[in-house]
Specification:
Its EC number is 4.2.1.51, 5.4.99.5. The chain is an alpha/beta fold. It is built from 12 helices and 15 strands.
Length: about 350
Amino acid sequence: MSEQEQLRAIRERIDAIDKDLMRLISERASCAQTVAEIKRAAGSGEDFYRPEREAQILRQVKDTNPGPLEGETLARLFREIMSACLALESPLKVAFLGPEGTYTHAAVLKHFGQDVQLAPMASLGEVFREVEAATCPYGVVPIENSTEGVVNHTLDLFVQSPLHVCGEVLLRIHHHLLSREESLDGVQRVYAHQQALAQCRRWLDANLPHAERIPLSSNAEAAKRAAQDTGAAAIAGDTAESLYGLNALKRNIEDHPDNTTRFLVIGRQESIPPSGVDKTSVLVSTSNRPGALHRLLTPLAHNGVSMSRIESRPSRCVNWEYVYFLDIEGHSADPKVKQALAGLRQEAELFRILGAYPRAVL
């Protein structure tokens, strides 16, 4: 068989597979519509998005992937199929720190897929308020960065808000230097969010030591400003690059190549069922006395429950008293975790489970 005959046979096979894929995806979409009809008939029409169910599907895709595509790649494809099917059931509107082109925007698309309805907000406070008012069922907010630490404003908003954590997103952050200029020689000003400037400090010191660094509210705003300003550049990501039509003078200028930001999905759902691989976030406080924090955390150790993060913030009620944010491994409904939380509740003056939710899959 000649080369052309072999290629023609393979292409015919690909065409046949594509038809099968379209048929199966359409069949899946029809099943999603049927699910929506059943839920509406049962009066549970608001419960279309199921974080634990989606996490289970994506983990199964990665665990049973036969190759040659990588598991992460295949899971992203399924993420988009689920996003499109969910949009058929009920369009999902998500609030996030805007404008479009921010890393939070990218986190929304990574977690919910391209078929989500975007609601960019001007501040983190507005994201919380939109979800609290039920204008948007969910919001996405940054909580911590692997190199710059916690986002304090997000923690402070949780203290006053009744919202819950429904999920998390881990986004590898790649900063690019974007500009209308053709080379670094023409860059006199660099716009970026303060954290982005900090995460690229060494590169900027070495390559643009004399350029003025101007902090803005977001990297998307920086890209928008650079698109209108001769002699300016912005630190931003791929989404902003394509959205504002800028040139990438240099890619991946972050000082730490493993730079990752963690985002939280916030909503009004008090309880997300266990997915099998979960986290629980808790807000607690205790009086300022010797050994108080040790006694507070002892129930976790006694029950063999691992704590992956602890942060403190001023209570703003009494000087030198603090509230603590804990992330622990496991779901609040798991027997060991449930027992540990009961012990923690006894030791705490303030105790609130912010949410139990699936650990990030993608």
